[in-house]
Structure formats: C-alpha cells, structure tokens
Amino acid sequence: MSDSFTGEWFGPRDRGQDQGRPGGGGLWEAMDQLRDMFEQKVMSPRVGRGDVRASILAVLADRPMHGYQIIYEIEARSGGTWKPSPGSVYPTLQLLADEGLITAEEAGGKKTYSLTEAGRAEAAASEDRSAPWESAGRKDAARATVLPKAGAKLAQAAAQVATSGSPEQVQQAVEVLDEARRKLYSILAQD
Q1: Count: domains in the chain
Q2: From 58-62, 90-94, 114-118, 128-132, the region with the lowest mean pLDDT
Q3: Measured between alpha carbons, how far is residue 94 from residues 21, 76, 85, 99 in Å?
Q4: I need a surface site. Which of 29, 65, 119, 175 has the fewest CB within 10 A?
Q5: Against a cut of 0.85, is the pTM above it?
Q6: Is residue 162 part of a domain?
C-alpha cells in the first residue's frame, strides 16, 4: 500500500502542513484533538492530598499487593479515571511503613505490602467515608471520558486499516464508520 493512498485519504502522516489535501490533516488531526481532550484538567481532575494514602489503605484492606498491583487496582476501581503514578504511590507506601500501618515482605524480587493491625484499624475507621475514587467529581469524570476514549480507540482502528488495509478494506471501513455516525445521531434523535 503506498503512502500517497493513505496520505490522500487521511491527511499527511507528518501532521505538518496539509499540502493542499482536503480535510487539512484528516484522521491524524482528529486523533491529536482527541488526545488533547484527555490531557485537559477537566477530563482528569487532580486528586486531593490524602487520596493516595486513603486509596492504598482501602485496597490493601482487601488483600496484600505489590506496588504496581496497588496502582492498577486503584485505576480499576476508579473506572479508569485515576491511575496514581509510581512517584506518588511508592513514597506513600514508605510513609505508611514508617507509621507502622503496613509491612513489606520481599519475595521473588517484589515487595508485597500488607496492613498491620494498626493499618487495619485505620482502614476500618475510614470505611464510613467514601473512597477517593467514589467522589462525585470522579464519577462525572469517568462518565465524561468513556465516550471520547471509545472514539479514540475507533480512530486508532481506522488509522490501522488506513495504513495496512487494501483499497477494498478501506472502503469497507468507511462504510462501517458512516453507519456508526448515523447510529450515533439516531441516539440523539430518540426521546
């Protein structure tokens, strides 16, 4: 498949000047716009200072985990709207260990963290408060990102067809996308 074919249909691959092609940058420009939307603070609100600490205690109350398991568990519980960085999780784990709330056991090159009696008491004391990933702002952010994320995944699939597919496959993809667009508008037309 030639670069001119994908370039003419989906815009320049270098994302620079549109070189006179219709659409100005086509699919690549649309993907850049979707990515920019996700990087806005509205889509990814900052967490409060104690949220990492409270979240770690909450997930360790269920079972012992190593650091990356903690990160991915928090991400899963937040519906994908919050994935704390290792740079915030590991220092917090050290702080919790210094406070005597968790212990770390090394096995197979990984540290597995678990709550101490004091840690279980602290986690139980905050059970009456909602977990940081359950806050109203987080739920709204999760709802606001689900559709754009699905759109970005769809755009990635379309880009893959554009770069790897035959002309017939590209035409089939265009038909699928046109049908999807019509169905999305029909959803808005419903009462």
Answers
A1: 2
A2: 128-132
A3: 55, 23, 15, 9
A4: 175
A5: no
A6: yes
Q: What average pLDDT score do residues 18-34 get?
A: 55
Question: What token pair was written down for 143?
Answer: 């709802």
90-98 contact pairs (CB < 8 A, 24+) = 92/52, 92/53, 92/56, 93/56, 93/67, 95/53, 96/53, 96/56, 96/57
128 and 56 in a common domain? yes
Residue 102: φ, ψ to 5°: -135, 160
Residue 84 belongs to what domain range?
Answer: 51-132
d(Cα 12, Cα 17) in Å, to the nearest integer? 8
Of 106, 132, 158, the domain-final residue? 132
pLDDT in the model for residue 139: 53
In a domain, 139, yes or no: no
Q: Supply the pLDDT for residue 117.
A: 95
CATH number, domain with residue 81: 1.10.10.10
Q: How far apart are CA 157 and CA 32, in angstroms?
A: 15
DSSP 25-43: THHHHHHHHHHHHHHSTTT
| Average pLDDT of span 12-21 | 44
DSSP secondary structure code for residue 130 in this structure:
P
Q: Is the per-residue pLDDT at 29 higher than 80? A: no
The least confident of 2-11, 100-109, 123-132, 155-164 is 2-11
Q: Is the domain of 84 the same as that of 149?
A: no
